Amino acid sequence: MRLRSVFRVSPFRGGAPFASYKPPVSSRHQSRPNRSSFGIAFDVDGVILRGRARIGGSSQALRRLYDDHGVLKVPFVFLTNGGGIPEFTRALELSQLLGVNISPAQVLQGHSPFRNLLNRYENELIVATGKGDPALVMSEYGFKKVLSIDEYASCFSNIDPVSQYKAWTNDNVCGQSSCLEDLKLKSDVLSERVQAAFVVSDPVDWGRDIQVLCDILRSGGLPGQSDGHQPPLYFAADDLEYQAAFPMERLGMGAFRVALESVFNRIHHHPLEYVSFGKPNPFVFDNAETMLRQLSLSHCDVHGMDDVSPQSYSFSTLYMVGDNPSVDIKGAQQAGHPWFSILTRTGVFKGEDNDTSFPADLVVDTVEEAVDYILSREGS
Ligand SMILES: [Mg+2]
Hints:
Blueprint lengths: L2 H4 L18 H4 L9 E5 L6 E2 L2 E2 L3 H6 L12 E4 L7 H12 L8 E2 L9 H4 L4 E4 L4 H8 L4 E3 H6 L12 H4 L9 H4 L2 H6 L4 E4 L6 H13 L14 E3 L5 E2 L7 E2 L1 H15 L7 E2 L5 H18 L17 E6 L2 H11 L3 E6 L17 E3 L2 H11 L3
Parallel strand pairs: 1-4, 1-13, 4-5, 6-7, 6-8, 8-9, 9-12, 13-14, 14-15
Antiparallel strand pairs: 2-3, 10-11
């Protein structure tokens, strides 16, 4: 099948975020701290950053979680519903922005669980949409026949009737590693059904994406064909709003889902079926706990603990520090023990007291205050 050779091969394969993390060689020769009885999950947007700007003393706060040699002292992860770039790229970006050494294993994005669908779609034609490079993200996870929705739409003449008015998209329909026109593979895409669609990150061109996704989903995977069985649709998250650089919250992936669902249900005889990942789903917190255990075992002194595995011990407390009550706090509440929720006032939540619908265990102004509280409570 020719299609197989089209799709991008990530030069970074192997940087899997859920792979067992090995600390840098230099850190393994340092004296290691004892195993931590607690861990921390930080949301990013509205807690650590607004856009690309650090907020709430985040850089100073995170530095306190490392020892004098820059070795991780307290296991922590970033648990974000954002994404659009591979975990290793996000880790590098966060390291530069925050001035601390973040490993890919510490970055859990909304789309990270998509890798668990690899067995089902590894060699199937799939379409990925969203800001950044959604197809590269999926390729990095191992999917071999993934096209961005930009690339996919470019195969179908006139699929977007207003494309000529979108000067910003006309020159950039090819992905980073492949170009359908150059590889003369349009005919394959035009005859093969899409097996699944993935909303990897916040869509950029809502109108075009709603149109093309409706075409894919109601036709059974091949735009222009008559109605067919809807292929599976996966969203990386379902946040209605999130805190970006603008003072007021911005519409998130959940808002896009509402728009797509509303339109689809008006033009199709079956309601839209979909699966949403990301916070507040409890399995996201379970996965974060597993990763925190692995981080803790990778960095702590395990002398005399040879039989310790990531599953064989538990934290006494895991802290979720977030700004969005309906996402971060609700998720931590649903996950239950040992999660303890801390709500900051630097993002979506701006109230004086506590959120009424999803009250946190603690409300603070900033992430720096949250870390202060955690370290003094844990006696660190
Ligand atoms: Mg947030």
